[in-house]
Design brief:
Layout lengths: L3 H5 L6 E5 L3 H7 L4 H21 L4 E8 L7 H24 L3 E5 L7 H14 L6 E8 L1 H17 L10 H4 L13 E4 L18 E4 L9 H13 L8 H4 L8
The structure holds farnesyl diphosphate.
Length: about 250
């Protein structure tokens, strides 16, 4: 889907996606176990969810668990799943009170049954909130997503629901986990790493990137506001020339 912000020419990115990195290093710097960093990371998830909405963002996607994260030590994976359960139980009331819709992207059917159940309940109870959406990327990987979509698309062709003659991105993208979501306008990564790590590879085709050295537990509303200010200064051209995207002086938008 074309980005909402692109369409409406607004300085605030409608959809912000964040690669939350640096929990482990945050803990290490303090001589604490890694899980303590994740615990603090959950607090930042909470504050950032509401900070983004206050700043005018319509959709926030957080990379909470990747398909590669299963390979971490067993106790860390278990602790992350435990934190996710704790978070979902605790936030349901807040989501309802503050009208936050929850949705997920990723192979959620491979998550522990307890987490799946909480996700289903939370999504069901928040599905009618349309002003602001929090998207958790859980057991997410872009390549897995594309492979899954290709399989589903091929099945639809075999079933006669799609035509091979119409292989447009517009049609194909309906088979991605992100079906119906606008593309991210701004992708932020914390902790000083400048990579995309299999996150929204296709959807981020025209996204602006902001990399910050801050570790995720230290990321605040002011830092989000700074990333949004940086976004506002950038000129998004979508393959056009600067003259084409910049309205002539005096023109109204
Ligand atoms: C990266 O830190 C972060 C993760 C692997 C997962 C992010 C998870 C959370 C913020 C908590 C759980 C989320 C929710 C929504 C309840 P890292 O461990 O890679 O840090 P490092 O690179 O410093 O080791």
């Amino acid at each position: 889907m074309p980005s909402y912000a692109a369409h409406h020419k607004t300085a605030v990115p409608a959809h912000v996606a964040i690669i939350m990195d640096g929990n482990g290093r945050w803990a290490k710097q303090r001589g604490l176990p890694r899980i303590e960093g994740h615990r603090r990371g959950v607090e930042t998830v909470r504050t950032t969810t509401f900070a983004a909405r206050d700043l005018g963002v319509k959709m926030l996607t957080l990379y909470a668990f990747s398909v590669e994260n299963w390979k971490r030590p067993q106790d860390e994976v278990g602790a992350l799943m435990g934190l996710l359960e704790y978070y979902l139980k605790k936030e349901l009331e807040t989501f309802i009170r503050d009208r936050v819709q929850l949705r997920t992207i990723g192979r959620t059917d491979e998550l522990p049954a307890g987490v799946q159940k909480l996700l289903r309940t939370t999504m069901e109870e928040t599905r009618h909130f349309t002003d602001y959406t929090l998207v958790l990327a859980l057991n997410y990987g872009s390549r897995t997503e594309i492979a899954d979509a290709a399989r589903a698309y091929a099945a639809a062709v075999v079933a006669g629901r799609e035509q091979l003659t119409d292989g447009s991105w517009d049609r194909f993208s309906r088979y991605l986990y992100t079906a119906g979501m606008p593309d991210p306008d701004l992708i932020i990564r914390t902790s000083g790493e400048s990579r995309i790590s299999n996150f929204l590879l296709m959807q981020g085709a025209y996204a602006e990137f902001v990399f910050t050295p801050l570790l995720w537990p230290d990321f605040t509303k002011a830092d989000l506001a700074a990333a949004i200010a940086e976004f506002a200064k950038r000129e998004r051209r979508y393959g056009l020339t600067s003259e084409q995207v910049k309205p002539a002086p005096g023109a109204t938008q």
